[in-house]
Amino acid sequence: MGKDFTSALRPAIVMTILFAALLGIAYPLAMTGAGQALFPAQANGSLVRDADGRVIGSTVVGQAFTADRYFQTRPSAAGKGYDGLASSGSNLGPTSRALVDRVTADVARRRGEGVTGAIPADLVTASGSGLDPDLSPAAALAQAARIARVRGIAPDRVRALVDATTETSLLGAAHVNVLTLNRALDALPR
Amino acid sequence: MTFQGWFLILLFVGILLALTRPVGLWLHALYEGRRTPLHVVFGPVERGFYRLSGIDPAAEQGWRRYAVHMLSFNVALLMLTYAILRLQGVLPGNPQGLARLSPDLAFNTAVSFTSNTNWQSYGGESTMSNLSQMLGLTIHNFLSAATGIALAFALFRGFARRSAATIGNFWADMTRITLYLLLPICIAYTLFLIASGVPQTMAGVVDVSTLEGARQSILLGPVASQEAIKMLGTNGGGFFNANSAHPFENPTALTNLVQMLSIFLIGFGLTWTFGKAVGNTRQGWAILSAMVILFLAGVAVTYAQEAAGNPILHQIGVAGGNMEGKEVRFGVAASALFSVVTTAASCGAVNGMLDSFTPLGGMIPLFNMQLGEVVIGGVGAGIYGFLLFAILAVFVAGLMVGRTPEYVGKKIEAREVKLAVLAIAVLPLVILGFSALSSVVPPGLAGPLNKGPHGFSEILYAFTSAVGNNGSAFAGLSANTPYYNGLLGVAMWFGRFFVIVPMLAIAGSLAAKTYTPESAGSFPTTGALWVGLLVGIILILGGLTFLPSLALGPIADHLAMIRGQLF
């Protein structure tokens, strides 16, 4: 047994150093170099800029929309909402009073906006990351009437915009990117 | 449940079954130390590593030496990571200027990554610098996975060799697996992830002024290179707190499918490699069949529960499945599938918050881990854990027919059965013991976020995840305290190495035995009867041990939910 230990010492220490250099330094740096060369937009966060070149967001990560004139995003438990440095879900369980109180309040708010019928689940639930960039088509369509009213445009135009922006996938669920949708909304001619 | 949901689930299993033999063949080449096409690229690296560290890759090791060398390497890695985390504040590669970790958090994290658990007591983006992520954590994702597969190879040799004193060379196994399997796949995988929207940069925070005029800070970093091995090596420790729910870790439904596939890929392949190693690939397919049956049963329950949703919210006027803690781009089916995949394997990644799953939907991930993570399981760890159950199953079958049990040509005797029971007993001792303790002492009770039975589920889940080296969580539990960091650290260490040492002893004991050819009296270990027996043994052992604790947590929570009781 003693000989087993002494014979292990040198390989254990040297292999730790060698593999740390290969896997902890060389591999991520080489992948960074390759990523920056081949896919620079994605490797740097898929950022979106306005006409002046200012960064207004990322198509991948969600940002908060709370104004009535925009499609509003889901509730978020990331920091105070859509905090890019504090991703998190609410972690509230299905029998949690805090969860039910929060959902009840959000349902009441939607009812106040004139939404009738069943409320799409994603509209009143917090996502896993708190940075969900998407809404379900139903959750977006439920807001169409409000947006049309505030912006003074025909509800059909808003709904058509949702349909045009919806992405479907056999491997996941249909979704609408809220930033893309709201930029399209701003670009609509009056 | 929808047709599309089941399409995804069956597509997932179908792709893996198609890949089982090719991956198994590749692994078998590494198991035998044969030359692969990749030796042209990485052969010089391999030889250089051996030369610098004074290793003779052809020098065979007995089980004791194999175990001691494996443990020494893991302890050295543990100390490296502890040092990096404690010195984080003065090391480079820290664009956010994050401070060093507290001793208990650094200990917990170092054990967590060394043991292939990747429990996150820390919040990735708010705790770890880029250097810590790369040098402190990513290396473990490779090497703990390589260690697991090497150990599986050692056990395979125990079954395959006759009258042998040795079970291979740890350094050769571990180095070959890293260089010819994990690293090449990760290079291609990382590029796919970057192309799909996962960041890969040394930069830190980007300041955004949003469309509404608010300020948002977005964190970037070397995410893709870590994400690839996090999945392939069934590690699960995310770059971000929200793990694979975070859009930067898992941006699309396609990346989600590929992540799930990569979690199971090596585990599926290893069952074939085992069959090939013992000279009958049907032995491997029998094991895989039992695993897939248990897996699909779990998926069916979780998917059905999550699709049915929360009746308390339905009463308020909310439609549809349970979306609390889930991402819209995945939806219910892909989230439910992901949760069962990561807990069947010991991956521990999450693409939705398990704490917010329905009680029974969240019980399946918990029960998967309590079964010992042998449903596919962690890379290497899954198959060696499963073979411990196989030893018990032939023992039970032997008792029933009154014959000395045999498995793949080796007589299973008292020593192997005792060691298998010893390894399997670690699980209930730690899970039930530590959960019971934490349910009565004040620092334990301070942990749970949710009240009522769900709070107990959070505690039970934490220790189950730790000892099973899974790493997923009912994340409401405030685990970053000296009490939980310490106790969970101990649980992770026990769960890893107190299983491995008896397992290696079995490998050594089996290798020394002669070959017993199959006779008319042997219990066949390839047919449906055997698969049924395996499934039965695993479910009965897991069920008898853990059902009472599940009754106090998820089952009580479920009954409360259908009565509409809140806590």
UniProtKB/TrEMBL annotation, chain A:
**Cellular component GO terms held in the UniProt record:** plasma membrane
Q: What are the recorded GO MF terms, alphabetically?
A: ATP binding; P-type potassium transmembrane transporter activity
- Asked if Repeat is a keyword of the record, the answer is no
Source gene?
kdpC
Membrane topology term reads: Single-pass membrane protein
Q: Which source organism does the UniProt entry give?
A: Sphingomonas endophytica
Q: Which family does it belong to?
A: Belongs to the KdpC family.
Q: What compartments host this protein?
A: Cell membrane
The protein depicted here goes by the name: Potassium-transporting ATPase KdpC subunit
Instruction: Say what the protein does.
Output: Part of the high-affinity ATP-driven potassium transport (or Kdp) system, which catalyzes the hydrolysis of ATP coupled with the electrogenic transport of potassium into the cytoplasm. This subunit acts as a catalytic chaperone that increases the ATP-binding affinity of the ATP-hydrolyzing subunit KdpB by the formation of a transient KdpB/KdpC/ATP ternary complex.
Return the Pfam families for the record: KdpC
Could you give the subunit structure recorded for this chain? The system is composed of three essential subunits: KdpA, KdpB and KdpC.
PANTHER family (alphabetical): POTASSIUM-TRANSPORTING ATPASE C CHAIN, POTASSIUM-TRANSPORTING ATPASE KDPC SUBUNIT
Q: Which residues cross the membrane?
A: 12-30
Database matches in InterPro entries? KdpC
What main location does UniProt list? membrane
Q: Which UniProt keywords apply?
A: ATP-binding, Cell membrane, Ion transport, Membrane, Nucleotide-binding, Potassium, Potassium transport, Transmembrane, Transmembrane helix, Transport
From TrEMBL, chain B:
List membrane-spanning regions. Answer: 6-27, 66-85, 134-156, 177-198, 253-273, 285-304, 374-399, 419-439, 459-479, 486-507, 527-553
Q: Where is the signal peptide?
A: none
Cell compartments where the protein resides: Cell membrane
Membrane topology qualifier: Multi-pass membrane protein
Any one GO CC term of this protein is: plasma membrane
Keyword annotations of the record: Cell membrane, Hydrolase, Ion transport, Membrane, Potassium, Potassium transport, Transmembrane, Transmembrane helix, Transport
- Report a single Gene Ontology molecular function: P-type potassium transmembrane transporter activity
User: Which top-level group of life is the source organism from?
Assistant: Bacteria
Q: Which InterPro entries match?
A: KdpA (IPR004623)
General function of this protein:
Part of the high-affinity ATP-driven potassium transport (or Kdp) system, which catalyzes the hydrolysis of ATP coupled with the electrogenic transport of potassium into the cytoplasm. This subunit binds the extracellular potassium ions and delivers the ions to the membrane domain of KdpB through an intramembrane tunnel.
Subunit note: The system is composed of three essential subunits: KdpA, KdpB and KdpC.
Q: From the Swiss-Prot or TrEMBL record, give the protein name.
A: Potassium-transporting ATPase potassium-binding subunit
